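Appendix B, Record 12. Input sequence as logged:
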Amino acid sequence: MYTLEDLKTNRDAQITVGSIVFFLLAFPIYFGVAAGNADGSLGGGVADYQVNGEITYVLLDSATEYVADGTPLMETFSTDAINNADELNIVGVRVSLSYVEEESGGGGLACPGGQDAPDTISGTATHLEFTASADGQNNGGSGSHEVSAIWYNESMVGNVVSGLSMSEIKAQLDSDGAGLGEHMMEISVSAQAGNEPNGLTCQRSDDGEEVTYTVELMVLEYTIAPFIDTSDI
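Logged structural output:
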């Protein structure tokens, strides 16, 4: 313990007390700045970042069903069926459809020259408020298409992102559990019967299509790294 007289005359005492005062003042300031900059230049502040990522798919269901004209097929699937789903960064749901022409009647020697008419097959994928739809046709007797509902910023992946912090970019890539729960699929068919040269004796009918569907979760794995411009090197 130093007295006031020691502080006036003892240089060692002056240095010791000065050091203590410095650290008492500096440490709170340092940790305050560090906490404020946890998302700062040392921890991912606003800068240019290279964002890379890859989508993998986890199967929810796959089947073949006959879908009647004007009568949609609707199915609901849950991530409860997936092991460790809560550990996955689920950012979308994809529905893939394939189908063949199911017209009947016409053809043969008695009715030559007839043609099938393409049907329109519609698919919709939905999760919470996120939904997407797409149509396809079975031109030439068969067809396929897919539709994906997503809830991440896919434009960032594979690009340099500027003007955002690392955590702001992460917020647009990480679903943070938003992909858990129920995912819905709807398939509808608008069937059209083809024509025959002799429509009185040669007629066609088309009541629907046999559709094979696959429903998959979209899982994103990504990296965010400071961008280093080497173009001028």
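Residues 11-36 form the longest helix (26 residues).
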